[in-house]
Specification:
This protein has 251 residues and is α/β, with parallel strands linked by helices. It is 41% helix and 18% strand. The structure holds 2'-O-acetyl adenosine-5-diphosphoribose.
Amino acid sequence: MEIVTDRLSKAAEIAAFTGAGMSAESGVTTFRSNDGLWAKFKPEELASMSAFIKNPRLVRGWYEERRKIVAAAKPNAGHYALAEMERDFRLQTVITQNIDNLHRRAGSEAVCELHGNIEQNYCMDCGMRYDGSNFAVIDETQRCTQPGCTELVRPDVVWFGELLPEDEWNSAVKAAERADVVLSIGTSGVVFPAASIPQIARKQGAYVVEINPEATCLSQTADAFLQGHSGEILPRLLEGLRHQRQQSSIR
Ligand code: OAD
């Protein structure tokens, strides 16, 4: 822990790369645990364009359920610690695979959402955006209400087989390449291209720290593995950074 705090305090730029485990302590279910989402549901029946075209109501209903769950969830101590690292230290970017918006709700501003945002929807034809405030008007038909447009409105999330949003991906790669330290938090690291972010950073010389209660495929190559829950470890790292700053101002 002390070595990692030391690296963080000396870094000119830090990036965080987060996955579903980051929100586990907020009560949001992860994907690949024994009771995870992909143990109960088949991704190809819910998280794909063909599923949506076949049964928009079913897919919409599933996302609506999840949207309500994350809307009711609160950011946890880990989300707040990252927001404070951005405000008070050198965390420049949070690169997240999560669609739950909890980083922004905790106060993080520089967030790259690689897999979209469940609060947002858009028309597949004209691109009209529908968020919480105007989404209710399309609830019955799932179709766009713009004059002359009747196309389906889909959630702004990345489905299986789809490309990542280009701007978000490019910003994430730049942030990873610039970073001296990357914190990889709560991800199994098996969904690409997102999972390549820690390797991209490492190739450019970054010190990669994994935070996870379990070892993953990243653990072997990470420079440090802090085993535990992000809601406990991140506040401890933040505390360590504050302590170091205080010590150096006394000296
Ligand atoms: P996974 O469900 O694959 O992995 C979650 C990871 O979080 C596991 O390694 C857990 O050990 C870890 N974890 C659990 N609780 C934790 C805690 N309190 N603190 C820290 N870590 C904890 O989720 P992701 O890696 O995010 O894609 O999955 C990647 C992508 O697969 C998702 O973005 C989603 C899914 O299919 C799309 O929807 C496109």
